User: Fold these one by one.
Assistant:
Number 1:
Amino acid sequence: MFQDLDATLKTILGQDAAPADLRNAAVSFETPDKDFKPEADTAVNLFLYEVQENRALRNNAPIIDRVGDQYISQPPPLRVDCTYLVTTWSSETGEVKAKEEHKLLALALLWLSRFPVIQNGFLQGSLKNPPQLYPLPTMVAQMKADQSMGQFWSALGVAPRPAFSLTVTITMQPFDQADQYPVVQAIQVETASLIHPALAGRVLDKTMVPVPGAKITVVETGQETTAGPGGDFTFTGLAFGKYTLLVQVLDQPDVQMSVDYNANSQVHNVILPGP
């Protein structure tokens, strides 16, 4: 994915509307160390030197989308800051070299500043397909307050060079799995009474379709009833307590379910297992 961000930035720098000097310069993503040699008389080098999660943009809520009659739930993605060090290079020497490099650096800074958010049309490879969940914001010339580049250039074995930072925040999904849930088709309101309590509920199959005609027995008391057209059943006159419901359906194994029947828990639906 990082290589696709490189390709995206190269596309932006090569736009027809970009300044001619910037458009005609070579674009490199190599390490700008003592062995770096630009491929043209002038070059813009973007060295990806830091990658870290943007914790300010972290969101633990899952991403939920509706696709047809299903809801697709995915874990939240990472928001990752990719920070480049942008330098410019000239094959000239002395003052001419410094003049060309400074001019090209200023052009690169001004041009990249035109893209506070990278538009979808510039995105390449895996940044384009599948589409990014969020726009790609950029920050130009925003070095960290406590960041010193002296050690950086020393490690590369070259003299310090004029440069600026470019940070692009991309979205990365570390998980492949996605959970699917059916769309709610209907809402069933179930009521209970504190004055006239009753142990009630519905008998449903595994797809939540009512099972009329099911026989329900309270094992402890021997009370029996038959589920109505909506799979509903009711037992009155029971003292609050724990009971066992025995559900019998023709040509299916019997099902038992323990219930804790009390004033705040009067409705107990029975969902039958699949075949």
Note: The first helix runs from residue 2 to 13.
Number 2:
Amino acid sequence: MPRRNRILFVDDEPSIRLTLPPILEQHGFQVEAAGSVAEAVAQIKASRFDVLISDLNVEESGDGFRVVRAMRETQPHCIALILTGHPGFETAVDALRLRVDDYVVKPVDVETLISSLRKKLKEK
């Protein structure tokens, strides 16, 4: 059986942590969820991931970028996506600087997210 792509999903909203990971798993991904920056960083140090999907504002405004930075330092080839309910020009520019692979606005269209992930994983 082929290895399933591993996703680290970071969001401080329990409802989103309960709904999105099972949907991603139905599409063949293996998902670990984290509810804080510290939890995410610990998981990044402990396991390898193919994809990081992080909320932009986990505990504080913009700290999803701290998660992306930690992933880039430890696992530079990991695909990184930022989710946000409050898109803004400045955060989009920060995302570009950190070489974030995608900047997704909530509510997430799951089909679009899945096809984007598959495309990016194929390109790697």
Note: The first strand starts at residue 6 and ends at 10.
Number 3:
Amino acid sequence: MHIRDIFEQQACTFSFEFFPPKTEQASDVLYETLRNLERLSPSFVSVTYGAGGSSRQLTHDLVVRIQQTTALTAIPHLTCVCHSESEIEEVLARYAAAGVSNVLALGGDPPVDRPGYDRSSDAFRHAIDLVTFIQKFNRSGAHPDRRGFGVGVAAFPEGHPATPNRLHELDHLKAKVDAGADYICTQLFFDNRDFFDFRERCELSKIEVPIIAGIMPITSLQGMQRMAELAAGARFPAALLRQVQRHSNQPAEVERIGIEWATEQCRALVAGGVRGIHFYTLNRSKATLRIHDRLAPQLKRAASSKPPPSR
């Protein structure tokens, strides 16, 4: 389903993110996770994308498998790094032929196995270049849907690590939206004040597309450390750190604290009129299922309420 149709039908979406498995065992685990989450009828699921050639193929294979064997709407990530225009056009054509209706356009990180990678040969330096190219593909009529691909872009409520000037940061985001982005999905955060302030600043900048909040529950101390590394600049509120540190030798209690914190975040976000919640699952369903089950009545009411008018 095209993302515009999803937002027109649902006042508050909820969705999940996965990364493509690299082994047969990991593939089986992920597929079980997908089946567990499919019963929740999420608005969509997204699949991450690496800079290396093998990772690209894994993403494509997983997205096509989701499209062909489940009732889920899959949104693949697409990044600028290590790509020529012809390669991106080929990827888009393959997705269009497979019935994929949306993509998430990202700047992306250089491949970890190629230190010092020189990006001067990349056709796309920034996400806005990728958004512009996707819209060019859409205008060509190569997609079965006359609207072409729906396009999402990323944002950072706590600030983009590469753009310390917060005014310029919003200028860059608005440029991506003006180039044709249909929605925004945020990086993970742990303090809703950061999200609500970010949303208000977007309104002041005349950014009017739906903004989805990215949530990742803490399930272990190791996972918390990984979040700090993956989401550069992620801020862990003192109240959360205090609870985790108090039970640092009790893994089950740390998991409970993380799930309850994320649940309360989601409750407040939905009550505050968020257009969607996107769960970063790390390919596991347990924590996400527990959060969803606690939120189910509120999510159902929010999803079935009348969406705000399109602007």
Note: The radius of gyration is 19 Å.
Number 4:
Amino acid sequence: MLKFLGRRLLIALPTLLVIATLAFGLLHATPGGPFDSAKQMPAEIQRSIEAKYHLDEPLWRQYLRYMNDLAHGDLGPSFQYRNTSVNELIRAGLPVDAWVGSLALLIAVLAGGLCGFLAALKRDTRWDYVPMFFAALGIALPVFVVAPLLVLVFAVQLRWLPSGDWRAGEFRYWILPVLALALPYTAYIARMVRGAAIEVLSSPFIRTARAKGLTTRTVILRHALRPVLMPLVSFLGPAFAGVLTGSIIIESVFGLPGIGRYFLIGAINRDYTLVVGITVLYGVLIIVFNLLADLSYALLDPRVRLQP
């Protein structure tokens, strides 16, 4: 196990280096700069600002300076949000995304898994057709359509819930963002679990278990559940990283102070350090949660062994 973890960490470090290098290079190759504006500032002031942020140095020196700071956990100052570091912006926005994303993914796993299992058990009946119809609809409809529709129905017409804003500790402000973020993941999980469950339930070991006279509940919980969860675990690795880094559309519609909004503003305003920092964060989360998914395989299926 320790050798496996060590090998994965050795692979992760050059991967993060490549991610940071590509993000750094592509942003600096994009026309424009962080301090370009419609109103031209005096040349002396612009040179002074660029010198403060080391933008007057050659690109290779800026790269080495940034990589040195990154190795020490410093993502640098934000060019757009003055007197604020990228670390501070991430610390402010990530808890909001983590809370909303965790609730959304929990709902998606429970609702999607239940619908998928039910559809597989009641294959080719209305209990299969109806959930899968809505699952296909949930996959087809993009988030930027679903989120405004939820606001229109529950906030504008019914007036049951607030249309936006964020007040930590008040449950009613979480419902619509969580629901809008959970719906597409619920649809994907339902389709995935249904397909995996149909394959597992038609396997020889399941037929043997049923031939022994075991109840359907026992067959599912003791024999079918773990194999069905294997593809779901693979999906949840990048999915959890995705919801943690926030959805730009969800944050824009509901006014959430998450890091997705910072990423969008940073990309528009050429805030190099902010965009690269969030990109590196996303890479770290992908690597960590994929590693946790690999470790989960050994728990779900004893036949899986983590080779050094």
Note: Residues 92-260 form a domain with the MetI-like fold fold (CATH 1.10.3720.10).
